[in-house]
Write a structure and sequence with these properties.
With 407 residues, the chain is α/β, with parallel strands linked by helices. The protein has a domain of 273 residues: TIM Barrel (Alpha-Beta Barrel). It contains 17 helices and eight strands. The protein has an eight-stranded parallel β-sheet with strand order 1-2-3-4-5-6-7-8. Helix 12 links the parallel strand 5 and strand 6. The longest helix is centred in the last third of the chain and has 24 residues. It is globular, with a radius of gyration of 22 Å. The relative contact order is 0.14. The mean pLDDT is 96. Bound molecules: zinc ion (ZN). The site of zinc ion has 4 residues, from loops.
Length: 407
């Protein structure tokens, strides 16, 4: 590839609009003030993920930054903040307070957050997963759509059951029944209502609740769990969940709803995407969008993409977790996928600041892979430019909005 061609590809990848298939935008306007620590606690640098706290004094911050020096989450977070807040240097112990005041000041500006999404991330569309209120979308952003998280249906055998987000479908959607058919009918009408009100997909984050293997269960066994007057034991909870999950897939198939599936990480012992293969096989009419590259099982996603025409591979979150894993995964998926239209990306962040970092990580991965493929003579520059647009924008647009690729 000549320098000019390389430049052309880089510019295209960095200037193109993106479709983020997955966000958890969290409106922080209720917070008394927003500073570096607020952004950290709403990011993958939070204690929940890193087991570290940035603290509030110089020493604690130094320890935090030193430990995370090579962590991908921090690398993109710092680049994002430096660019968005116009700082000369990346976040350090020395300039931390200056970052605090810039963030507080600029975030109070009207339209600032929208500008971050539209003019920096260059998002054309974002699919929001409001796990604290499934199916809801932030009203202030007209370019957002929503996905409907279905976890709670597997745990609503009584009013006391809850998924890992504390949600219970009976409490959320106001139904109560101990009849399995009625339960499934209620579930279907809630799903139909959510789709009618603008949701564009279903989302399973069940990899945080249980293994993503869902056995075929006899209806009579699931019916028994519902009729029980006592709370179900662990085995009955699993059995009920298995039955309900199959019913959700049936509904998705009947109504042609794309189904986003968290695979990898979560509860690592049960989240290998291979666990999900029987479901992919059982519901060939459902477009299953497998999230996160199945990290660390990215090859498994490649295998599923190779074998099943109803599998979509989503890089969502992966470039932020590990750019190296994302580069390797994308190289491989491009080679094995039977369709170039079944690979997409999402950022998976709560703030536009972290989302911007995620978008940079993704563009970096996309450029690396496409340029290496052209260098190696695998495909030509025009193909690379076309594939870049598909993965960054058009594939997701067609999955979730049903719009065809523009000429
Ligand atoms: Zn997510």
């Amino acid at each position: 590839m000549t320098d000019r061609e390389r430049k052309k590809l880089r510019e295209a990848v960095y200037a193109q609009p993106l479709f983020s298939s997955h966000e958890h935008y969290n409106d922080l306007s209720g917070e008394p003030s927003c500073d570096v620590n607020t952004l950290i606690s709403n990011s993958y640098l939070d204690e929940e993920w890193t087991f570290l706290k940035p603290g509030t004094d110089r020493n604690a911050r130094a320890v935090f930054l030193a430990n995370l020096r090579s962590k991908s989450y921090l690398r993109w977070f710092r680049e994002s903040l430096q660019t968005l807040y116009g700082m000369d240097e990346a976040l350090s112990v020395e300039n931390w307070k200056e970052y605090d005041s810039r963030i507080g000041e600029l975030r109070r500006g009207k339209g600032f957050l929208r500008k971050l999404y539209t003019e920096h991330c260059l998002y054309e569309c974002v699919v929001q997963d409001t796990y604290w209120s499934p199916g809801e979308m932030p009203p202030q952003f007209d370019f957002f759509r929503a996905t409907f998280r279905i976890n709670s249906f597997l745990y609503s055998y009584s009013r006391n059951g809850e998924d890992h987000n504390g949600n219970n479908a009976r409490r959320l959607y106001g139904f109560d029944t101990d009849d399995i058919d009625e339960y499934v009918r209620n579930m279907e009408s809630v799903i139909a209502e959510k789709m009618d009100s603008g949701c564009v997909a279903l989302k399973s984050a069940l990899a945080y609740d249980r293994p993503i293997a869902f056995e075929e269960v006899d209806k009579s066994a699931a019916a028994r769990v519902l009729r029980n007057k006592t709370e179900p034991d662990e085995e009955e909870v699993k059995l009920f969940g298995d039955y309900v999950f199959h019913q959700i897939c049936r509904i998705a198939q009947k109504r042609s709803i794309p189904f986003q599936i968290h695979t990898g990480l979560g509860l690592l012992w049960g989240s290998n995407p291979m666990n999900f293969e029987p479901i992919i096989r059982a519901y060939p009419g459902v477009s299953f969008v497998l999230f996160h590259g199945g990290y660390p099982w990215c090859h498994v996603i490649g295998g599923l993409l190779h074998n099943y025409p109803n599998v979509y591979a989503d890089l969502v979150w992966l470039p932020l977790i590990s750019p190296t894993a994302a580069v390797n995964a994308l190289h491989e998926w491009l080679e094995v996928s039977n369709s170039i239209f079944r690979i997409e990306w999402g950022s998976d962040c709560k703030t536009p600041e972290e989302s911007y970092g995620a978008s940079l990580a993704f563009r970096n991965v996309l450029f690396t892979v496409l340029s290496q493929k052209v260098e190696a003579g695998y495909f030509d520059l025009d193909t690379a430019l076309h594939i870049g647009r598909l993965i960054g924008l058009e594939n997701a647009r067609s999955v979730y909005l049903g719009t065809e690729e523009e000429a």
